[in-house]
Each structure stands twice: as structure tokens, then as C-alpha cells.
Design goal:
51% helix; 5 helices; globular; 8% strand; mainly alpha; 128 residues; two-stranded antiparallel ribbon
């Protein structure tokens, strides 16, 4: 049986990828989930100390494996950050820094939050 932490990590990643339409939010490259060839990753924009930012959807972006390795964590990290700011707003990293102090630390509440978000996202998609 998977630990609750592992379940939450997987649910968070699914929410991030689904919200992005299974395409990279940086390049628009489609993932395998929708017939593309790219392997998609759900990347944490800010470090995830404890449980506070680990499962916060504002802290996630869907990118390809290559963008993850060579952009988010590679030699083009600063360029990647600028692209994220263009997408999410100039102050996204400051907002995430403030969210570190959010009170969403309870794993059971995190699971309820993520499950409700994936249902909401899927409901919005079916209405479009």
C-alpha cells in the first residue's frame, strides 16, 4: 500500500499536468497522455520544505523532461525563471515565498484539497 505522502505526490502531479492540458506550459509540447511524444514532469517552482508548498498547486508547472533537466535545474535556470514569470506573473516567486507560511500542513486535508481540485478541473474541461 502506498504511503499517503506518495499518494499526494502523485495526485499533485496529475493535477498539475491535467490543468496544463498535458502540454508543457513553457513550450506547448504535447505529452504522451494526449498522443505526443514528450515525457511530462510536474515541477515544483519553489522548494518544498515540509508539506506546506509540496502539494500547493500554485507551486506546480507542467514541463517536458528536457525542460526540467536543462531549464529548471540546468544551465538555463535563469531563463527558465523568466519564462515562468512571463506565464504566472512577475511576482510568482515572491507569492510562493509567502505561501510557505500557509497552514495547509495536514496530509489528510491536502488529499481532500487535491481530490476536489482534480474533480473541479475535469468538470471544467467537460463543460468546454
Amino acid at each position: 500500500m502506498k504511503s499517503l505522502r506518495k499518494q499526494l505526490d502523485e495526485l499533485w502531479a496529475e493535477c498539475v499536468k491535467f490543468r496544463a492540458g498535458y502540454k508543457s506550459e513553457i513550450s506547448g509540447t504535447p505529452g504522451r497522455q494526449i498522443g505526443g511524444e514528450a515525457i511530462l514532469h510536474a515541477h515544483h517552482l519553489a522548494h518544498k520544505p515540509g508539506n506546506v508548498l509540496r502539494w500547493h498547486l500554485a507551486n506546480g508547472i507542467c514541463i517536458t523532461a528536457g525542460e526540467h533537466k536543462f531549464g529548471a535545474h540546468g544551465p538555463h535556470e535563469e531563463e527558465f525563471r523568466k519564462k515562468v514569470q512571463a506565464l504566472r506573473g512577475e511576482n510568482i516567486f515572491e507569492v510562493l515565498d509567502m505561501l510557505k507560511y500557509d497552514t495547509m500542513k495536514d496530509k489528510t486535508l491536502c488529499k481532500i484539497y487535491l481530490e476536489s481540485e482534480i474533480k473541479r478541473l475535469k468538470g471544467e474541461k467537460s463543460q468546454n
